[in-house]
Amino acid sequence: MRLGLVASKRLVVNADDFGFTADVNQGILDAHRDGILTSATLMANGDAFDHAVRLSHENPSLDVGCHLVLVGGRSLLDGQPFPASVPDLLKRLVRGSIRVYDELAAQVRRIRESGVRPTHLDTHKHTHLAPPVLNAVARISAESGIRWVRRPFDVPMDAAAYGIPAGTRRISLMLRLMRGYTRHVLKARGCRSTDHFAGFQITGRYGPAELVRLIQNLPEGVTEFMCHPGRCGEELRQTSTRLKESRVLELAALTAPEVRQAARDSGVQIVSFRDLSV
């Protein structure tokens, strides 16, 4: 579908964790070259950051944003390890022992200094739903001119049809309690967000059929679909992430011919944040 013809339903397909490992990076690139993936968000403190930067320069059609990290990995400011989990991060935020703005600004700065021109911001583990992180991200968005910021509140989904566990549904509902505050903070800073978001509840547990169903039932407007494709080599297997073999399944779904056909048949325009910024 030509970008000059604006569809009533548009879909941004964004891969998180660009820069995590080289095999994840390669899977993201495969999903872009051979599938519907349009964008990725880059981890400035990722072990495979330099590899991801090289791939982004070699593949300029891949739209790149910043995947801001406060959980897992190490600080760019002092090299100290970040909290291993979101609950541990929240405790440190309460104590004020993390320089949130300085750390995240340093991550954006490193990405820009690599020659990448980021178009959007999101956070690892959606930590910007915590007010101190949200305020820092919104401020960075305003100061840097990177206007697109993720609002990670899933569209309504049929739990039975997608096989969503009860615990995941409960977490999704809890996250929605922050919806009004998040919208208020982002609006006050002039940030932009897509109309809808999807992917949290089905991360690591969808195949082509579920992705086709999602595309066929997209609401009017612009939706961001968060995904985690990758190859699962020894490098990824040595990490502590729970998303390993599931990245290969997501890659297969994103590159399945029936998924792209579903978008065509449903009149869904596949776009990137760069396209939306024009």
Can you walk me through this structure?
Strand 4, helix 5 and strand 5 form a beta-alpha-beta unit. The model is unreliable at 1-5 (pLDDT under 50). Strands 1, 2, 3, 4, 5, 6, 7 and 8 form an eight-stranded parallel β-sheet that branches. The radius of gyration is 17 Å and the shape is globular. The chain is built from 13 helices and eight strands. It has a single domain (9-277), classed as Glycoside hydrolase/deacetylase (TIM Barrel, Alpha-Beta Barrel), CATH 3.20.20.370. The two termini are 17 Å apart. Helices cover 44% and strands 14% of the residues. With 278 residues, the protein is an alpha/beta fold.
Low-confidence stretches: 1-5
Q: For the record, give the distance between the C-alpha atoms at the N and C termini, rounded to a whole number.
A: 17 Å
CATH topology tier name: TIM Barrel
Look at the structure and give the CATH class: Alpha Beta
Q: How much of the sequence is in beta strands? A: 5-15%
Q: Tell me the series of helices and strands, N- to C-terminal.
A: EHEHEHHEHEHHHEHEHHHEH
- How would you characterize the largest beta sheet? 8 strands, parallel
- Beta strand count: 8
Mean pLDDT: 95
Helix content: 40-55%
Tally of individual helices: 13
Quaternary structure type: single chain
